[in-house]
């Protein structure tokens, strides 16, 4: 018996398992597509011909196809509707969420708290919290017989260059 659920599953699995019969013939390119139109659009990326020009003020960037031009306009020239209202700040944002996060700079509010047990660190922006979180995780040297642990990546990098690279060059000099 065929149920609606089985039919849906069969239809979906067919969609995801489609063969990519339309392969790019450009040397060194391994891209392949399920539709001819997608291959044709891709082939324009190998061309030096750039007929699609951005007409925004002082831009003039040219692109291989209209899709790439549209993406450029959306990313670069899309109107920034969200303006910071803090006196003296002229920052504008494309997303309200970005304006909200920016506003913490003016209020000194630090809403992003470290979740590590016993740590009370707070930050104004998520990227600073993400960077801070690595301190708790740390970085361990994976060289055989070492296993030293560092709070910061720069500490591990210095350790590797000072203790392990030097050791290797010493071994080479002893063998010769």
- With strands numbered from the N-terminus, the spatial order across the biggest sheet is 1-2
What order do the helices and strands follow? HEEHEEHEEHEEHEEH
Low-confidence stretches: 1-15, 167-176
State the helicity in percent bands.
40-55%
Radius of gyration: 27 Å
Overall structural class, as computed from helix and strand content, comes to: alpha+beta
Walk me through what this model shows:
- The chain is an alpha+beta fold.
- 45% of the residues lie in helices and 11% in strands.
- The chain contains six helices and ten strands; from the N terminus they run αββαββαββαββαββα.
- The chain has helices at residues 4-16, 36-43, 66-77, 96-107, 126-137, 153-175, and strands at 22-23, 32-33, 52-53, 62-63, 82-83, 92-93, 112-113, 122-123, 139-140, 149-150.
- The chain has a two-stranded antiparallel sheet with strand order 1-2. The protein has a two-stranded antiparallel ribbon with strand order 3-4.
- A hairpin with an 8-residue loop joins β5 and β6.
- The model is unreliable at 1-15 and 167-176 (pLDDT under 50).
Topology:
Elements: H1 4-16, E1 22-23, E2 32-33, H2 36-43, E3 52-53, E4 62-63, H3 66-77, E5 82-83, E6 92-93, H4 96-107, E7 112-113, E8 122-123, H5 126-137, E9 139-140, E10 149-150, H6 153-175
Antiparallel strand pairs: 1-2, 3-4, 5-6, 7-8, 9-10
């Amino acid at each position: 018996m065929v149920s609606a659920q089985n039919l849906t599953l069969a239809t979906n699995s067919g969609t995801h398992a489609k063969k990519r019969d339309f392969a790019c013939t450009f040397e060194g390119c391994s891209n392949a597509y399920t539709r001819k139109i997608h291959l044709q659009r891709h082939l324009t990326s190998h061309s030096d011909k750039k007929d699609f020009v951005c007409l925004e003020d002082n831009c003039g960037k040219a692109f291989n196809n209209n899709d790439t031009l549209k993406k450029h306009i959306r990313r670069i020239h899309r109107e920034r509707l969200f303006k910071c209202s803090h006196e003296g700040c002229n920052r504008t944002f494309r997303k309200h969420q970005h304006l909200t996060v920016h506003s913490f700079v003016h209020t000194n509010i630090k809403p992003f708290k470290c979740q590590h047990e016993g740590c009370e660190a707070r930050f104004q922006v998520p990227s600073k919290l993400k960077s801070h979180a690595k301190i708790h995780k740390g970085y361990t040297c994976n060289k055989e017989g070492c296993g030293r642990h560092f709070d910061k990546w720069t500490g591990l990098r210095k350790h590797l260059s000072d203790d392990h690279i030097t050791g290797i060059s010493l071994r080479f000099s002893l063998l010769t």
